[in-house]
């Protein structure tokens, strides 16, 4: 019994002294989005969802792309939930600068989180030459409650842009996992 308790305490210490739950979802990318584009035309997609634990504040420090992006420019934005008149709550309709953004859970500590507590990380790809560009992961840097910088690599939606001087007629993800 003591040994099990000791192992449990060690696990808590290894995951962080604050005991804060990871604000990024776990598991492999659950979706893919493929978009045809003209060269020079920016295209966007929500590629990562972040949900702070009730009572936590996340400070976004930046993000870096991982994937085959040679010949394309990439920037990351933050998207908070937007409430529509029909009752839908959508992430991705409105964006703001990611670096320096603060995200706080609206739920009290110990309560359940809701749709207002989730934000999206939006990738914007602008091809500078014709080609197929694929974002396969995001390296996100953030702080929880003013603590040390944390870095996590994850993606919820693999993002593919097929760009040409004339708009490509198709753009398939060609994901083999």
Please give a handful of descriptors for the protein shown.
six-stranded mixed sheet, four-stranded antiparallel sheet, globular, 1 helix, 177 residues, mainly beta, disordered N terminus, single chain
- The H-and-E topology, N to C, reads as HEEEEEEEEEEEE
Q: So what's the overall shape?
A: globular
Approximate strand percentage: over 45%
Question: How far apart lie the N and C ends?
Answer: 41 Å
User: How many distinct folded domains?
Assistant: 1
How confident overall, as mean pLDDT? 83
Portion of residues within helices: under 10%
| Structural class assignment | mainly beta
Low-confidence stretches: 1-20
Walk me through the structure.
There is one protein chain. Strand 5 (82-83) and strand 6 (89-90) form a beta hairpin. The protein starts with a helix and ends in a 13-residue tail after the last strand. The chain has one helix and twelve strands. It is globular and about 50 Å long. It has one domain (20-164). By secondary structure, it is mainly β. Strands 1, 3, 8, 10, 11 and 12 form a six-stranded mixed sheet that branches. The model is unreliable at 1-20 (pLDDT under 50). The protein has one helix at residues 2-15; strands spanning 31-38, 43-50, 57-68, 72-79, 82-83, 89-90, 96-97, 102-104, 119-127, 131-144, 150-154, 157-164.
């Amino acid at each position: 019994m003591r040994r099990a308790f000791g192992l449990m305490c060690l696990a808590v210490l290894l995951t962080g002294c604050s005991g804060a739950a990871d604000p990024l979802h776990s598991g492999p990318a659950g979706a893919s989005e493929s978009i045809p584009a003209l060269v020079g035309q920016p295209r966007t997609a929500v590629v990562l969802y972040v949900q702070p634990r009730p009572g936590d504040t996340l400070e976004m420090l930046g993000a870096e792309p991982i994937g085959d992006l040679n010949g394309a420019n990439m920037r990351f934005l933050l998207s908070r939930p937007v409430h529509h008149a029909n009752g839908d709550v959508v992430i991705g309709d409105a964006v703001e600068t990611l670096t320096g953004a603060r995200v706080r859970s609206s739920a009290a500590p110990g309560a359940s989180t809701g749709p207002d507590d989730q934000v999206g990380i939006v990738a914007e790809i602008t091809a500078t030459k014709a080609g197929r560009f694929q974002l396969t992961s995001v390296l996100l840097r953030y702080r929880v409650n003013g603590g040390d910088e944390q870095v996590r690599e994850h993606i919820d939606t693999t993002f593919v842009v097929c760009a040409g001087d004339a708009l490509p007629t198709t753009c398939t993800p060609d994901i083999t996992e």
